[in-house]
Every structure is written in structure tokens, then in C-alpha cells.
Amino acid sequence: MNDIELFFKGALAGLAISAPIGPVNVLCISRTVLRGRRGGLISGLGAATADTVYGTIAGFSIQFIIQFVIREESWIRMFGGILLIAIGVFYFVKRPPSLTQDKEKKPAHSDYISALILNFTNPTVVLSFLAVLAALGLGHHKSYWSNVILVAGVFAGAMLWWTALALTADHFRNRFDSHAMLLMNRIAGVAIAAFGMVMMLLSRLHSN
Q1: pLDDT, position 108
Q2: Residue 139: Cβ-neighbour burial (10 angstroms; 0-12, 13-18, 19+)
Q3: Would you say 121 and 24 are in contact if contact means Cβ atoms under 8 Å apart?
Q4: Which long-range contacts (C-beta less than 8 Å, at least 24 apart) are formed by 101-104?
Q5: Cα 98 vs. chain centroid, distance in angstroms?
Q6: Scanning 84, 88, 104, 106, which has its CA 20 to 30 A from the CA of 63?
Q7: What would the pLDDT profile of 113-157 be if each residue is shown by its tens digit?
Q8: The most confident of 46-50, 91-95, 106-110, by mean pLDDT
């Protein structure tokens, strides 16, 4: 398998892992609507970074980290669920400021870090990467350089998804008035909290 094919298979893996609807997708759309394209893209960059780290663990088959994730999955899910519920409640009760005001005052690094941490709270991502890479015929041992190409592809695929999502949300942004933005906040809050509750339920089921 040449480097170009390996890169594109890595991009396909990154796209496949990022695309399913989840709390970070909801967060990225909400931030784009409230803060513009920049807020959505920076949030997407944080999510893509987390996806790339998990893809690196899976691609390089770093077994001690994979085993830790499997062993502590229920606790990681519990922590992630609590975090998601807290973020959901925050978004539900938060009254959105004007688009211009929010875009000017909100620091970019907070969007990046919060999306990064939020995506890290889902330990099944690394297991999903293992499954996707195996399905693409990439589960066998590879050279160090091949793994680097693969991980670069994962980042490119993930970032392609987050960029497309932010640009699509930004396209419809001007159609939102203050009432619609408040409704968007509440929908995002409910959705994110619901994901958190599901994650905590899965944590209980896994521990049993």
C-alpha cells in the first residue's frame, strides 16, 4: 500500500469517526450560530485534535493505553456523562448575547480546549478507530512512517468533517434572530445533557 492510499484510508477513518451525530457536533453547530465561522472552526479543530490523538493510539497500537481505556471505560464514561450534563445545563440556562458581542469577547482558546476535552470524554473512540482501521485493512503492523502518514490522514479527514459542518452552520447563521438563538441554546443544552445521561447509563451497565 503506497503512502497516498494510506493517507486517504486514514482520512476515511477520521471522517467515519467524526461524522456520527454526537455532543461535539451539537456544540460545533451551536457555537457557529452564536459566534460565527471562526468559533465553529476552532471548536472543530479541538475535536479533530482529540480524534487524532485517539487515532494515533489505535494506529500505533499503543496497547497499555488501549488496555487502560478498556479497563477504566466505565469511570471515564461516568466522568464524561457528568461533564456533558453540566455543559448541557449551562447551555440551557444561558441567554445568548448578540452575535457581534459574543464573537468579540469570547477567547478562541476556550472553544478549542472545551471541544478537545469534551471529545476526550468518549473512551469508545479509540476502540472505534481500532474497528474502522481493521475494516480498512489497516489493523496489521505498519512501519513508523506508515503510521505517521495514517495519523495525518486521520486528522485531515476529521478536520474535513468539522470544517464542512461549521461552514454549513455558518451559511444559515443569518437566518437566526434572538429568539431562534435562545431556542438553539436550549436545544443544544437538552441534546448535550441527553448524551451525558446516555453515557452515564452505559457506564452503569458496563460496570454491572
Answers
A1: 63
A2: middle
A3: no
A4: 102/34, 102/35, 103/35, 103/36, 103/38, 103/39
A5: 26
A6: 84
A7: 888 888 877 766 767 777 777 777 765 656 778 888 888 999 999
A8: 46-50
> CA geometry: angle at 170 spanning 12 and 96, to 5°?
120
11-34 CB burial, b ≥16 within 10 A, e <16: bbbbbbbbbeebbbbbbbbbbbbb
Backbone angles phi, psi at 106, to 5 degrees: -80, 125
Q: Which residue has the higher pLDDT, 192 or 12?
A: 12
Q: How many structural domains is the chain composed of?
A: 1
The CA–CA distances, whole Å, from 4 to 16, 47, 70, 150 equal: 18, 24, 32, 10
Instruction: Show the domain range for 139.
Output: 3-207
Contact status, residue 77 vs residue 205, Cβ threshold 8 Å? no
Of the candidates 23, 54, 40, 42, the one whose C-alpha atom is nearest the C-alpha of residue 150 is 54
| Residue whose C-alpha cell is 474535513 | 160
Give the residue with greater pLDDT, 13 vs 59. Answer: 13
